[in-house]
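Curious: explain these tokens?
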Amino acid sequence: MRKFLTIITLIAIIAFSIGKAAAGGPIFWRVNTRAEIEKGDAKGISISDSGAITLAPSMLEVFDTKQAYIWSAVADKSGNIYLGTGNEGRIFKVDQGGKGSLLYKSSELSVMAMAVDGQGYLYAGTSPDGKVYRIAPNGDAKVFFEPKSKYIWALAFDPQGRLLVATGDKGTIYRVGPDGAGTILVKTTQTNITSLAVDATGNIFAGADPGGIILRISPAGKAFTLFDSAQREVRDIQIGRNGDLYVLALSDAAGSAGSNASPASASSLLAVSNRRRRGSDRDHQRPAGGRCSAIIGHDHVFRRFDRLGEIGGL
């Protein structure tokens, strides 16, 4: 009887051990879509539109501003980088060696836009209660232009050296001469003009919020809608070779101009549209030639549209 009980006990112990081992064994699951992959933390990797995972470019910290946000950045001809920050309205200068220092502190909360002229003077647009400051290389500053607008979202120079100032919350673009005297170039139906780019011939490209459109504006101030991104806000425009435009646009989920959305939350929603949308040319002629590449939307498909608003895959 004792031998029988011993055998029964051994069998029970073995069965318990096997069950415990099975419970602690490997568990398999399958991830099929980009959305499922993005539920995890992407550290040091890039995720393509198809969900493929590759190593991301390495990131090296050069200078820590100790500020909550870096809203704008621009470089001068000497390779110095200027950083506009919030929420203390500070501008930092970082030299080619990575040494950073405070250049100027404005009385507004955020430095949302900056540009450098041919003489090396820095122009900084602040918000709210927007002002444009002209800052000398040694840090001496004065108010250069005050448009009486709540926000200054973007600054750019035209080929004649005049400063273009994109504002909100009335969607107006100003053109300011070297003496600081400004006039309205374009007054749009949009709430905010959030980005600017100027080509070599003086044509101006402006991104807007909340319509998510891109305007093409002639040097004379004649504007038409080049492209409708189907997103909420066009945050940045860059002109590439052969006049190509590269456009960053944000959806509603990323917040909007004038909101408190952080740069991280906005950039995490960067995507590429495959929506086929045509620009509008009501009462305007469409220009000929040139291609524009749009990085816009929420579905990560790279598309190309030309200056007629036509879209094609790349």
User: Anything to note?
Assistant: Residues 260-314 have pLDDT under 50 and may be disordered.
